[in-house]
Amino acid sequence: MRRALVLALCIATPATAQQAADAVTTEGTSATETAAFEGLPDRVRQALEAKANGEPTEAQDWMVAAANPLAVEAGAKVLEQGGSAADAMVAVQTVLGLVEPQSSGLGGGAFLVWYDAESGELTTLDGRETAPLAATPQLFQNENGEPLDFYDAVVGGRSVGTPGTPALMEEAHSKWGNLEWADLFTEATTLAREGFTVSPRLATLVADDQDRLTRFQSTADYFYPEGQPIAAGDTLTNAAYADTLDAIAQNGSIAIYNGEIAQGIVDTVANAEGNPGVLSLIDLAIYSVKERPAVCAAYRDRDVCGMGPPSSGALTVGQILGMLNQFDLGEMGPLSPEAWRLIGDASRLAFADRGEYMADSDFVPMPTDGLVAPAYLESRAMLLNGGEALNEVSAGAPEWSHAMNWATDQSIEFPSTSHISIVDADGNVLSMTTTIENGFGSRLMAPGGFLLNNELTDFSFSTHQDGDPIANRVEPGKRPRSSMSPTIVMQDGAPVLAIGSPGGSRIIGYVAQAIINHVDWGMDVQQALGAPHAVNRFGTFDLEEGTAIADLAEPLGEMGFETNLRDLTSGLHAIQIDGETLRGGADPRREGVAVGQ
What we know:
Blueprint: E1 3-4, H1 14-23, E2 25-26, H2 31-35, H3 42-52, E3 57-59, E4 63-66, H4 69-80, H5 85-99, E5 109-116, E6 121-127, H6 150-154, H7 165-176, H8 186-194, E7 196-197, H9 200-208, H10 210-213, H11 217-223, E8 235-236, H12 239-251, H13 254-257, H14 260-270, H15 281-285, E9 290-292, E10 295-299, E11 302-306, H16 313-324, H17 329-332, H18 337-357, H19 368-371, H20 374-381, E12 418-423, E13 429-435, E14 464-465, E15 468-469, E16 487-491, E17 494-500, H21 507-519, H22 525-530, E18 534-536, E19 540-544, H23 553-558, E20 562-566, E21 573-578, E22 581-586, E23 593-596
Parallel strand pairs: 19-20
Antiparallel strand pairs: 1-2, 3-22, 4-12, 4-23, 5-6, 5-13, 6-9, 7-8, 10-11, 11-16, 12-13, 14-15, 16-17, 17-21, 18-19, 21-22
Helix pairs in contact: 4-5, 5-7, 5-8, 8-12, 16-18, 16-20, 16-21
């Protein structure tokens, strides 16, 4: 469903602002969609109305922004009770896994960036899935050594990695939680037992994926009861999920990694008809979350910080912004073809480095520091001075401690995923992107009432190219490269923005562009998320259909770009921290919301 949304864009030239405001269209939260969340408190309805009007939600004490109002309200209740951002995340994630199971859940993984108000330090938690110990580099190749078609690899047990989200939730709570662990599951458990209203978005996605969702009986029984897809407005219950949450609440995440639920996961993967996998009880038993240093890159007077390898997010966002640091985008404005030429080709150069160098650095050497070194990015930015689209791009030569010759990666990332931003009353900031990878993951429903990921298809299906190894190939215990980009922007040592998005490898462009919208073009946080998208990863400029950006197809074409008009359904959620005021935004293309007090 599409509607016009007029944005008051705060930029240098009023004529350009009016042009943009007149032509922006996005998917908003209509009256029909809002009906799915009837019965929620006034604060949620008011926040939905603010989003529909293109305005941020404002608060002073705390705020939570996420992809579904039911999940946001669960987090708000925790924050209202004095819970930390880590506590609220557990409540939000467990409800998201119920009400938007296509995007994230207990059967998936996540990356979390945390700012600790007491210490003033940033850190990250890596809850990414791992490849089973029995996996080989040829996991996604046929008997002739040829890469499988994407969905032939995805649907079934072959694509399932060891889930990380349950362990990450517990690790975050153990480090930064205030409330009792067991109390954080109340909202999700109640909704699972008593039922929740199916939203139009979930109903549409279920109907559109019938062939794959009905391949396995347990999945079909849940999403297609009596052979018909669940419909918007239906009440859906999930007693098995409630039982799983009870087990985690009582025993911790070990309930997922050992015992009956673990055995159910392994059996589901091994017995997936036509495409079984190799996940074992040992893989579940040895899984661990890893704390890693944040990766930061300078942009204007800020530091843009996020998740390092195995995510490519912070590095690639940082590279794009680091190259653009050499140009005055603010003077050009958000409808300037020249500005988008620079953004597009900076992104192409960053994606060239991403394809060649970025993977799980626990398994392959990576020039992490060199990729975001200011001198390297300045040298790469010199390639943008020509005034026309680059004829071709290739990986650069960042500084690193030893040589390694990698081939260009050939993995595929399709959009799904979800993002959560939270600021608590103590000033702690959480930015977490969470996923089961493709929409509905592997399409396998575990006996515990949750879908299993297809995260292993984020690895390259090929192992070598022209004799050189591919850094992101499958290896036992390895974590697949990701584009998830949970981000905290710092200024003068303090957080000023928490942001992230779903969207496959387009996540990187969505996040970078939203930061540019806010920092260079003066948009408030809601405007920055609702402004039209233009994304260039590998040469073709994807322009958001039905928006002012679509009018740039001709000038960008004259510069030498191929362009493609299409829907670009991001799911950005962000919180701006401006002194004592919090301003939250939720992507108008989806049903999320930002709520605060």
